[in-house]
Sequence to fold (446 residues):
Amino acid sequence: MDRYPRRVFSKSYALGLKTIFLLALGSVLLIFDGSTCTSLPHRLLNWVAMPIQYSVALPAEAANWIHDRIHTQHHLLFENNQLKEQLLLLQAKLQKLSALQEENNDLQALLDAGDEISTRVLAAKILAINANPDDAQVVINKGTDDGVYLNQPVVDQYGVFGQVISIEAKLSRVLLISSTNSAIPVVIVRNGLRSTLIGQGKGDTLSLINVTESSDVKVGDQLISSGLGLCFPYGYPVATVSRVEHIAGNRFLQIEAILSARLSSSRQLLLVWPKHSQMLKEAKKLAQ
Amino acid sequence: MKQHPFKMRLLIYISLFLTMVLAILPWPKHIGAWQSVWLIIMVFYWSLNAPQIFSVGSAFIVGLLLDSLFGSPLGLHAIPLVMMCYILCKIAPHFRFFSHVQKLTLITLLTASYVLLITLLQNLLNIAISSIFAWLLVVVTTLAWWPISACFSGFIKK
Fold:
C-alpha cells in the first residue's frame, strides 16, 4: 500500500484539464460580456485594475512636480507677467461676451425659451488611453462618486471629445468620437443643414453621411452639435469640413471633416451636464 | 529555477504590473497598436522560464486584466493568452535546447497565432477589428524578444 495518496491526474493531464476549464470559462465570459462590457465580472475587474490605471498618471505627476520645483524665480516672474497680460485681455473679451450673453438671454426670453445657457461642468484628467484607432477610448479620473452618468458628453477646450460608455466609483471610460462605433448629430453653422458625423477610426478625420449631392456644403464649413440625439448639447464645435467629393452615380456626397477636439494631445477634459429640458427645446426647434 | 520562489514570484508580479502600466500609457497613434507587446513578451518569458509559478491560471488572470484595461469584452485577450501559455508550458523543458533560430521562429509563430486568434474573436463578436498595424506586433515582439529575455536572464542569474 502506498504511503501517500496517488494523484488522480498526472501533472501533464492536470495542465490540460486546467487549460480546458479556463478556455470554457473565458468563452462563457466572452459570450455574456459580449459587446456591452458592462457585466458584473467586468465591473469587478475594473475595480481590481484601478491601481494600474491610476499609476499610469504617476510619471506625468512626478515630472510636473520636478518641473515646478526646478523653475527659477526669473522664469516664474516672466510667466506671471505674461499671465497678467493674458488676464487683462481675457477680461476685456469677457466684458464684451457678458454683454452679448445678456442680449441673448433677453432675446431668448422674448422667444419664450428663457432657460439658462450655462451648464454644469466638471474638469477630469485622462489616466489611460486605448490607442487602437478603431476602438479609441480613454479612462478619466471621475466616476459615479462625482455624479458622472452613462452616455454623458465629454468635451475638451476645443470641442466635443466623446461620451461616457462605462462608469466605476472613481473612473469612467470615454469612447472618442473618432471611433468607428461613434456617431454624433451635427448641424452646419453657415446654413443650418443637419447631418450625422461618424467616426472612421482614422484619427482626427470623420465622415459626414447622408448629405445629398444638391446640398450646399463647402470646405471650411463649421459643424456644431445639433443636440438631436439628446446626448450632446446643442452648439459645441465638433469639426470643420476638409474635403467634399462628388462621385458620379452616387446620390450622396462624400464629405470628410477634421475634428475640433485635440484627441491626441488633450490631457484635461470637461464633463458636461446638459439641461435636458433645454436640449428638448433646441431639438424641437431644429426639427421644425 | 534556483531563485527563492518568493523572490521569483515578486519579480514576476512587479514585471507584469509594470508591463500593464506600459500597455496603457499614452503612446503615439500607430505605436498604440503594439501597446501589448511588453506584456506578451513577459507572459511568454515567464511561461518558459518559471512554468511552475506562472502557468495557465496566471495567464488567464493577466488576460482578464488586459481586457479590463483595454475596455474589451472579458476573454478576448484571456483566451489567446491561455492557449499560448499552455503551448509554452509544454515546450518549456525543451526550450533551452533549441537553437536561436528555432527559438525566434517559435516566438514569431506564437505571436502571430495570438494576433490571429484575437482578430478571429473580434470578427465573431462583430466588434471593431484591430487595424493592420496590429500585425506589426509580431515583428516588434520578435525583435524585442532577444534583448529583453537576455536582460531578464542576466538579472535572474545575479
